[in-house]
Amino acid sequence: MPTDPRPGGTGGPVPALAVRGVSKRYGATAALDHVDLEIAEGEIVGLLGHNGAGKTTLMSLVAGLIRPDAGEIDVHGHSTVRAPRRARRELGLAPQELGVYPPLTVRQNLRFFAELAGLRGRSARARIEEAAEPLALTALLDRRVSRLSGGEQRRVHTAMALLHRPRLVLLDEPTAGVDVQTRARLIAYVRELAAGGTAVCYSTHYLPEIEALGAEVAVLDDGRMIARGSVGELVRRHGDSGVELVFSGSPPALSLPWPVTREDEVLHVRVERPHLAMAEVLAALGESAGQLVTMRVVQPSLDSVFLHLTGRRRPTGAHPGDAVREATAAGCSDGSGSGSGSGSGSGSGTTPAGDGTEPPAEDRIEAGHHG
Ligand SMILES: Nc1ncnc2c1ncn2[C@@H]1O[C@H](COP(=O)(O)OP(=O)(O)OP(=O)(O)O)[C@@H](O)[C@H]1O
User: Fold this and answer.
1) Distance, CA 130 to ligand 1 centroid (Å)?
2) Residue-wise pLDDT tens digits, 337-349
């Protein structure tokens, strides 16, 4: 395995992805602000963040579809700016927006992308079979894409990104709008890829997927990387436990020895051992107990980590398909966004579509500390 020869490099293995100090603005919007992220071979990183946090922008930069205003991105040691073709050969991107061609069959779609990746004849045919099988597309290969369900089309879209066996895979909300079975199959396949050494960056709004993937977590918030670590580490460090009280109207002001936050009709009492605090919380309610609808103990979880770090709950009912996007024109400033040529692996060749309360500084894990 090659070692990291960069000045100041660790001398350890070259990471599959090294993002250092990357910033990107769209006019007045700082989509990314000095972002660091490293992904090692065989590692799955779940990229989390609210709508507009910068996840798609980060993936588009890594894929070389847009250029950073500042900072460096290396894919297996190749700079996406100075050696874009080499960098692209190493990666496969399945963007959020579906990039399949409905009038063509699944096989024709896959063949088209295999050719873009420089695969021909027998080797193209073999790779098509290889990518189709784990995504349960084998029986659908000769069906027109226009005749497939939304979830099946997304599987075709994902297969396109994997045809050239990239060593770094970028999956931008791959389970948006797919059913439970497809999600489970995709997660199993991503785990298999990682077990074989592929590095994966997987963005999602659906936190249980992160746990199912056994992924490390990176949290973007308003363009800044505010946390990076394993689920266990983050939960230990930031997973608030507490008592949650839901009222039928405006919640009362409670006098308690623990911090109390309010969100619409919900009060959250942050306390380390919530079971022991229940009686005191109830007593503090006094006459407003009549407006209490439910009261429950909240244990630390990835959900509470996300709330703690971003100051907001993840989008209500967030599950695949719920993400509301503002499809905007892509800012392909370097004009290289077609994914053609050297097998950029940009699954579809589609352009990226674009569409935040600051936690206290001491609550942040600086991304750079976790490389
Ligand atoms: N082409 C563009 N032109 C202008 N602003 C853009 C463009 N693309 C993204 N943005 C803005 O940059 C910020 C980051 O957007 P981005 O799409 O990266 O977020 P995201 O985390 O992927 O969101 P989502 O979860 O909704 O997909 C947002 O404020 C968005 O409005």
Assistant:
1) 34
2) 333 333 333 333 3
